[in-house]
Amino acid sequence: MTAKYENIRLEVAGSVATLALARPERLNAISASTHPELRDALDKVEADKNVRCLVLTGEGRAFCSGQDLSERNVASSAKLDLGASLETNYNPLVRRLASFPIPTIAAVNGPAAGAGANIALACDILLMARSAYLQEAFARIGLVPDAGGTWFLPRLVGLKRALAMCLFADRIPAEDCERMGIAWKVFDDEIFASEVAKHAAILAAGPTLAYRLAKQALMASGANDLSAQLDLERDSQREAGSSRDFIEGVMAFREKRLPRFQGE
Length: 264
Ligand code: LHQ
Known about the structure:
By secondary structure, the protein is α/β, with parallel strands linked by helices. 45% of the residues lie in helices and 16% in strands. The model has no long low-confidence stretch (mean pLDDT 97).
């Protein structure tokens, strides 16, 4: 199934949904009209219970160049409220991706700059093509990192590296992203698409309910002390332990075969 939009493309093949930003002539910059399309596509993915992995990527040579900078007349005398755009569009998108009920892969096929970099960070797993890079480009245009960058980065790479990434606003090559733990894996450009497909297929065949609970627990860990986190793990395990996938997992282990998880 392929859904038609103006600025994005949604394709569902089996249990994997691929959502591609599709304005390659602007390196997939996000315009105001992209946001409602993204919301609609994410609604569709979430409503389709057969879909068990979401891949977010970009068409053409880029992943995403962030906010469309040609959209706003910054020189006009009317003051721009960039906070409103975050409040209405970017922040709900980042919250939604970070808590999406199925595993999410950012398939970073090329440049990911500004909010484009941070939207990738909001996904569960980053896979990067060797030629790709992340750039916290904000300082270059006199802005502050947004779309969750100031939350994700220090947790991923430590405060000092996060500061350097944001203040110098340099391009961080894929291999450095992998070395710092931002990207899970880097693949040569020629095999990138097939590796993304392989990784997505693995997650789409996994125990979706247990994945969701694991994500929730990991995301909650930053605000919890050990005792509260142990309580959360107990509750999560209680829920996972009553799932059909748990029964299947143990049966498969005993029968020395691969499990056939249904996601529930
Ligand atoms: C673009 C863009 C773009 C429009 C490339 N817009 N056209 C901000 C404000 C409000 C609220 C919410 O939050 C935000 C968050 C943000 O995301 S702010 C940060 C926005 N992004 C950036 O600052 C990055 C801007 N882009 C770049 O620095 C470069 O294009 C990168 C480093 C991504 C790639 O460089 P190159 O490979 O050299 O490509 P290019 O610069 O030649 O771009 C190709 C075309 O794409 C070009 O158009 P043209 O007509 O000249 O061929 C660019 O103008 C266009 N483009 N990014 N964000």
